[in-house]
Amino acid sequence: MDLEEGVTSTMSALPRTDLDVAGSAAFNSVETGRCVLRIEADALGAMAEALDETFAVAVDRIAAIRGRVIVTGMGKSGHIGRKIAATFASTGTPALFVHPAEASHGDLGMITSDDLVLALSNSGETPELADIVGYCRRFAIPLVVIVGRVASALAQAADVVLLLPDRPEACPMGLAPTTSTTVTLALADALAIALLKKKGFDAQGFGVFHPGGKLGKKLIKVEQLMHRDEALPLVDLDTSTADVILEMTAKRLGCVGVLDSAGQLSGIITDGDLRRHMSSDLLSLPAVDIMTSSPRTIGADALAVEALAVMNQPDRPITVMFVIDDFRPIGILHVHDCLRAGVA
């Protein structure tokens, strides 16, 4: 972030000793760390208390655009801006970061009249932002700014000003951007989550943007893993147990679903059901006599982790479950399908 005059007032923010240098006997790393965290936490608390309807205006302006949020900032603001753009993009608000210096050398072409610019500057006097600000004014591109000074040039040029709290940097010299970068990032997170809720962005949308890694595994849906069509082991109520065993063996999922006359799932037969009904006349019994009625089922739109939770209920864990639509089986999910996909 940009440095401002008067930073020496924060020189005493951290606990000091006669030496106060790393490696000295008097230096206390833990106390210094705690003090930094308290200073930044105090600033976050102050910002939360001061948040007003201007924030809601900013959310509405961003939600109304047809294009993207163009995040820009110089120095440490730029590093924070890249993370902000990534957070927006992953939570349903298309965004990208444009470096202000590069913008002056052709990258202004990345910004369209459908976009909105979110500019970051603690001082509000960053000279490298001048061309982007001028471009916004020339082509009537909305400009939302996060600044530390309402009387700054950047704030005066903006459509919406989100003001940072007047709190010292955690650096004992008041020079390193610490508190200011923390509150800027937190305020942008608040914008992103408010937009997420306003747009009704849900886990399904989140999964589209996060297909990789552990998070992506947690967002896999049942329909992506289930067996379907000819792979479904299904029999009728009056099918003999002998034929039930043939169907179970052919489909190799350890069970069969039992359908009523309307094609709806009436019950399920597993290896355990066969063992429980073992008798001399077992093979001649109809499926309805040995099936477990009202089996646990799930919908195709459910997350695979939800299906795994249903199968792992502690009172009676199961390894396979039918996927239904209007009580009709459209798929079947085995616990091994979840484990192979990394869902756990």
Secondary structure tally: strands: 12
**Share of β-strand residues:** 15-25%
Count of individual domains:
2
Helix segment tally: 15
CATH-defined topology of the largest domain: Rossmann fold
Q: What is the top-level CATH class of the largest domain?
A: Alpha Beta
Report on this model:
The protein is of the alpha/beta class. It folds into 2 domains: 7-201, 3-Layer(aba) Sandwich (Rossmann fold), CATH 3.40.50.10490; 222-340, CBS-domain, CATH 3.10.580.10. It has helices at residues 29-50, 53-64, 76-90, 100-103, 130-138, 153-157, 179-199, 203-209, 213-218, 222-225, 241-251, 271-276, 287-290, 304-311, 335-340; strands spanning 69-73, 95-97, 116-121, 143-147, 160-163, 234-236, 255-259, 265-270, 292-293, 297-298, 320-325, 328-334. The strands form 3 sheets. A 5-stranded parallel β-sheet has the order 2-1-3-4-5, sandwiched between helices. It has a 4-stranded mixed β-sheet with strand order 6-7-8-9. Strands 10-11-12 form a 3-stranded mixed β-sheet. Helix 5 links the parallel strand 3 (116-121) and strand 4. Helix 1 (29-50) packs across helix 7 (179-199), helix 2 (53-64) crosses helix 7 and helix 3 runs parallel beside helix 7 (179-199). The longest helix has 22 residues, at 29-50. The model is unreliable at 1-21 (pLDDT under 50).
